[in-house]
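Fold this sequence, please.
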Amino acid sequence: MAMLFWGRGLRNPVTKKTMQGVQLYCTSVVSGRERVNGVDLFYQQTGKGDHAVLLLPGALGSAQTDFGPQLKSLSKDRFTVIGWDPRGYGNSRPPERDFPLDFFERDAKDAVDLMQALRFPRFSLLGWSDGGITALIAAARNPSLVNKMVVWGSNAYVSPQDLKIYNAIRDVSQWSERMRRPMEEVYGAELFIKTWEGWVDGIGQFAQRPEGSICMELLPQISCPSLIIHGEKDPMVPSFHPQYLLKHIKGSRLHLMPEGKHNLHLRFAAKFNKLVEDFLNQ
């Protein structure tokens, strides 16, 4: 899903370093690149805990634009936290991003293969928005590798209502300067417009599939403990989406945040982080 309505004065500087050991956020976060499926994938890593956790960002997102409070504040003792930039996003460029019909499947394979390349045999997934869709697919395809999963702002299909939402935000010139700036800082104005329009077209193509399915048929294959979080004021994701996930993911639970919007993990970071830590520690 789209990365809008952030309210994020939380951006961190983009590093161009490729070697291990770059210090960010004034904590022990290191960055690196790993060659995976023909692409140099950029990642950030922090913590020394036994429980590995992968953070999966939203559309056009990256670890540092989307997960600053999680990289900074999730327990360093209990978890090893890895944030990644999917291919064509953030610092995982080149290549330029494209959106074939299987782009979520491709991201899911890249994500799992990255964790294997980094020598994490099992791990949990925290997926926001598009990253939540990627997490759903990764968990379904790799039940032996995924410990637990948390998703929010995500959907398993594209409805006519969703299409209206996407088309309403297609023209970035209509966004406020505050909303455009974070993405323009990463991509530049021209590439941001091109990539965003590509995303709108890419997500919209699922509406042509039966029932608008992105990954509906995979949900029954998810066997890991799963937490679905939904902000009741999310303007991007209608409430029928988390309800559908709850119904079709065995044993999942749903937590509603009454004041939460699409960026609930940024706006209510302390509450979100505690909720996630409690779930992962159970």
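The radius of gyration is 17 Å. Residues 1-26 have pLDDT under 50 and may be disordered.
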